[in-house]
Amino acid sequence: MVTLEHVTKTYQKKNIGLEDVSVHIAPGEFVSIVGQSGSGKTTFAKLVIAEEKADRGKIIVGGWDITHVRHHAIPTLRRQIGVVFQDFKLLPKKTLFENVAFALEVAGQSTKRIASVVPQLLKIVGLEQKMDRFPDQISGGEQQRVVIARALAHRPKLLVADEPTGNLDSINAQEIIALLQKINEFGTTVVLVTHNREIVNMLKKRVITLDHGHVIADQRAGKYLL
Known about the structure:
Distance between the termini: 27 Å
Radius of gyration: 17 Å
Number of strands: 10
CATH superfamily of the largest domain: P-loop containing nucleotide triphosphate hydrolases
CATH architecture of the largest domain: 3-Layer(aba) Sandwich
Low-confidence stretches: none
Oligomer: single chain
Number of helices: 7
Number of domains: 2
CATH class of the largest domain: Alpha Beta
Strand order of the largest sheet: 6-7-8-3-9-10
Helix content: 25-40%
């Protein structure tokens, strides 16, 4: 599902994001990408969703070589990858229904299909009874659930979650991770970027540890090492 072959990404002042990283993530896996601040884990996520481009190496997502993906093709790629951010990025003046529907509207989906699909997505995340509320009328954990529903709008085979529990308390964080596990059980590949030691140790899933842009550990049923 995701392959990085000898990927290097550097920023200004020779600040290394990733250096000569090779990783393969198979379809259906649940993988945690961990590391301290500045280790390269956010760079990893940005490269996979084509928000950044590698300086060297090759990146393949779902059989698509995106190493030099053209700008006009990125929206098509993003519809195949669900993305969950730490800071929600919900539209404050739209209801929960409208926030999820927006992802389908921009892709040209019909009103009939949107009316059918959005309630199903909100039901998956347990918010079908609150679809007419606005983001400021629900909790932070519920807002993150809306983000996940929106990320699932195009039935992606890959979900990239970059610090999805970073702004949540422990209880809400546990619920979001349980939801990601449920999505993974449906067959979606999940890449979780996190610094939350408790969550990583609880998952007992594959853990890739980054340090200063290098992969220093890759455990099949791992723990948070740093």
